[in-house]
Each structure stands twice: as structure tokens, then as C-alpha cells.
Specification:
With 194 residues, the protein is of the alpha+beta class. It is 30% helix and 28% strand. It has an eight-stranded mixed β-sheet, with helices on both faces. Strand 7 (162-171) and strand 8 form a beta hairpin. The chain starts with 8 loop residues before the first strand and ends with a helix. Bound molecules: coenzyme A. Residues 36, 39-40, 109-111, 116-122, 145, 149-152, 154-155, 158 line the site of coenzyme A.
């Protein structure tokens, strides 16, 4: 894998940028919307009250931004070209739970509900996946999506991810009491290019 780090990418309607502190509060506000974080946040439940307080969170976001240009970080803040608004975030990362093979990463995405269902997630994900497969030389994505999170696994299927038909896992989410049954998905570079 070529550790090239996050690189600015432009698509038809979006600019995917290296995260800066300027837009982090907006991203935190988006992430604190229950319908956005429900099947996304998996931080230990004992921290859930702290998540809701920007003054506490700010230092974690600063820490993240300080490492945004590290060559092993692949995380983008997503902006609309037409008005410059930050509408979401997308990333590729190594998850100890899901990435049991070399050259394999998981991914994450969330968008402001105001801008969902307009194809923006598809556009951003295609841009990130093309970069990760063609320039970074990642071989495979392996990830999971809560079964009730239909928008997310439909998006995975639209992008060509293949669901494991024989297995599901149970994911813990910060704001949900019980573990949630989740589909497992894979996207292979070789199959994706074809
Ligand atoms: C998942 C998410 C990123 C999709 O964003 P989006 O910009 O609305 O996605 P798109 O408009 O590109 O839609 C892509 C596909 O997803 C599916 N989809 C999107 N929203 C859907 C919904 N509410 N119900 C069912 N399918 C949906 C559709 O198949 C759609 O393709 P189509 O329009 O060709 O039918 C967004 O819903 C989100 O931010 N969810 C909260 C955060 C989250 O759960 N992240 C994932 C954790 S695994």
C-alpha cells in the first residue's frame, strides 16, 4: 500500500478536503443529530454525555486535525462546490474488528440530513474508493452496516460491495443499549475495476 495520506479531490459537485479546524464544529453538530450518529458512533457508552459538549470534544477534534496530514490518515471533510458548505465526512481506516487481512481497510461516512438522498454520498464514496484503489493501492474494503441502517448498506450495494450471505456480526453503538445485528460487506479492488 502507498501511504499517500489524504489528498484534495474534486468531483462534479463536491470538494473532498483535508480536515481543518474551521469546519470541525459543523461536523460535530452534524454528528450529534441522533439520526446521523445512531448507527455510526461506537465510542464507549461511558463517554456519551461528553460527546454532547463541544468544549470537551474540541480537543479531540484538534488532535485529529493535528494529524490530518499524516501519511497513514485517509479522512476528508466534504464541501459543496456551489456554496462552500461543509456537509459531511468520509474516511478509510483500519478497524481491528473488521480488517483481519493485510492491505484491507474499513470505511465510514456521514452527511447532514438536509443534504441526504441527493447522491452526494455516492459521489464522495466513488471518489475516495477510486483514490484508495488506484493511487494508494488498497486491495480490499471490509466493513459492516447495522441491518436497520438501510441507507448505509444500500449505498454499499450501489457501490458494488458484496454482502456475506453466511454471517452477520453484532455491533455496539454509543447511543443504543443493545448490540445491533449487522451485515458484513467486502469490496475487492480486482472485482471493482472490472
Ligand atoms: C448513509 C448515508 C451516508 C447516505 O447518504 P446519501 O447522501 O443520502 O446517499 P445517496 O444519496 O448517495 O444515496 C445512495 C443510495 O443509498 C440508498 N439510500 C440512501 N438513503 C436511503 C434511505 N433513507 N432509505 C433507503 N435507501 C437509501 C439508495 O439506494 C441510494 O441510491 P439511489 O438514490 O440510486 O436509490 C446517510 O444516510 C448518512 O449520513 N447516514 C447517517 C450516518 C451513518 O449511518 N453512516 C454509516 C455508518 S455504517
Amino acid at each position: 500500500m502507498n501511504l499517500l495520506g489524504t489528498k484534495e479531490i474534486e468531483t462534479d459537485r463536491l470538494i473532498l478536503k483535508i480536515p481543518t479546524m474551521k469546519e470541525q464544529k459543523i461536523l460535530w453538530e452534524i454528528l450529534m443529530i441522533p439520526e446521523v450518529n445512531r448507527y455510526y458512533l461506537d465510542i464507549n457508552k461511558k463517554f456519551k454525555d461528553r460527546l454532547l459538549n463541544w468544549e470537551i470534544q474540541k480537543k479531540f477534534y484538534e488532535e485529529k486535525v493535528n494529524h490530518a496530514k499524516d501519511k497513514d490518515k485517509f479522512e476528508w471533510s466534504i464541501f459543496l462546490k456551489n456554496n462552500g458548505e461543509c456537509i459531511g465526512q468520509i474516511n478509510s481506516h483500519i478497524s481491528s474488528k473488521e480488517c483481519d487481512e493485510e492491505n484491507t481497510m474499513s470505511l465510514g461516512w456521514y452527511f447532514n440530513p438536509k443534504y441526504q438522498k441527493r447522491g452526494y454520498a455516492t459521489e464522495a464514496a466513488l471518489a475516495m474508493i477510486n483514490y484508495m484503489f488506484n493511487e494508494v493501492n488498497l486491495k480490499k474494503y471490509k466493513t459492516s452496516a447495522a441491518i436497520p441502517n438501510i441507507a448505509s448498506w444500500k449505498l454499499m450495494e450501489k457501490l458494488g460491495f458484496i454482502r456475506d450471505k453466511n454471517k452477520t456480526i453484532f455491533n455496539e453503538y454509543t447511543f443504543i443499549d443493545e448490540p445491533v445485528e449487522s451485515y458484513i460487506y467486502e469490496l475487492n479492488k480486482d472485482k471493482y475495476s472490472k
